[in-house]
Amino acid sequence: MITISLCMIVKNEEEVIGRCLDSVCELVDEINIVDTGSDDRTKEIVNKYTNRIFDFQWIDDFSAARNFSFQQATMDYVLWLDADDVFTAEDQEKFKLLKQSLQPTIDAVSMNYHLSFDHEGNVTSLLRRYRLVKKVNEFKWIGAVHEFLSVSGNLFDSDVAVTHSPLSHDSERNITIYKKLLASGKTLSPRDTFYYANELMDHSDFETAVLYYEEFLDSKLGWIEDNIRACFRLADCYHKLNDKNKELSSTLRTLAYDVPRPEACCRLGYYFMEQFKNHEAIHWYSQAFLYENHQQIGFQNTSFSTWLPNLQLCVLYDRLKQYDKAYHHNELARKYKPNNDSIMKNKTYLDEVIKNNQEKI
C-alpha cells in the first residue's frame, strides 16, 4: 500500500484547521504544515496533530509556498488541501479504498472539488483538481495567485471528493497581489490575466474586467475551459453594464470553442423567453440536458443541467397552455429542489388547472 504525506500552507486558520485535520489525519502517514505568518492559535492547534511545522516567509506567491511545502514530504505520494477543506465521512471511506488499491504506476490522482451546495445538500458547483501526486516526480506549482499543479504521466480520476467549507474569505488578498505584480512592471500570463479579470469583476469593476477578459481571449493561449468561462463572465459584465447585445454575443462566443454547454443553452433560452418567443426558448432549454461532460477538469454548475431548465420549461409550457408538459417539468425540477417555494407554488397551481380541465371533459 502506498504512503501519503499531507502538505498544507496556512495562515491564521484557527477557526478551521482542526476541522480539516480531523477529517484527514487517519488517512495519511505524515502531516506537514507550512505556516506563512500566523499570529493566532493556528500552530498551537496544528501541534496536536503533528510536530512537522515549518515557517515560510510570505512573498505574495502561493506557488512558492506550496512548492516549499511539497519539499517537506517524505512519503510516496503528496496530498494537498487548504485549511477550509474537509473530507466527509463518506469520502474518508472512499479515500481509504483508494489508498489501498492505488497502483504505484499512477503519477497523479484527481478528485472532485465540491464548491457549493443548495439547501437540500446537493452539490451545485464543482470541478476536478489533481490532489494526490507521486513525490518522486517533483511536480511543480505554477502561478503567484490561483496557482495550479502541473502534472503529467499516468493520470487517474478517482471518485473521492474534497469539500470546500469556508467560514470567511479575504476578498482583497488576491486582487492586491495582482495589482502589486502589475505595479512592479511584470506582465501577467494569459492564465493570470483571466483570473485577474475574475477578481476585477468580483469587485464590480466591470469595464476594466472586460478589457482583461478580451486581452486573455485575444492571446489565444488559454485553456478551452477558461476561454468558455471568460465568455460567460464577459456576458455577466455586459449584463451589469446593461448592454444586452454584447451580453448575447458573449454567450454566442462560447460556441466557437465547443458544442453548446448547458449554461449557454440556458442563457440563450432566457434571451428568447424574455421576448416571449416561447418555442425558441423551449428549444434552447431542452438542449441543456443533452450535453455530455467529457472534460473532467472544467468547472461545472449543475443548476444549468438539472432543476433550472426544467423550471423554465414549466413556465414556458404553461404559457402555451400545455399543462401536462408544464407539470412534468416542474416535477423533474422538484426532484432536485423539493422545498423550493416557486416549484411548490407551481405544483399547487398546476394541480388545480389540470383538475379543472379534467372536470370539463
Describe the structure.
- This protein is an alpha/beta fold and 361 residues long.
- Helices cover 47% and strands 17% of the residues.
- The strands form 2 sheets. Strands 1, 2, 3, 4, 5, 6, 7, 10 and 11 form a 9-stranded mixed beta sheet that branches. The protein has a two-stranded antiparallel sheet with strand order 8-9.
- Strand 8 and strand 9 (148-150) form a beta hairpin.
- The mean pLDDT is 95.
Short description:
47% of the residues lie in helices and 17% in strands.
Range of strand content:
15-25%
State the assembly state of the protein chains.
single chain
Number of helices: 14
Termini gap = 69 Å
Shape: globular
Q: Helix-strand pattern, N to C?
A: EHEHEHEEHEEEEEHHHHHHHEHHH
Could you name the ranges where pLDDT drops below 50 across 5 or more consecutive residues? none
Averaged pLDDT, please?
95
Helix fraction by DSSP (H/I, runs of at least 4): 40-55%
Radius of gyration (CA) equals 24 Å
CATH superfamily of the domain at 4-164: Spore Coat Polysaccharide Biosynthesis Protein SpsA, Chain A
Main pleated-sheet profile: 9 strands, mixed
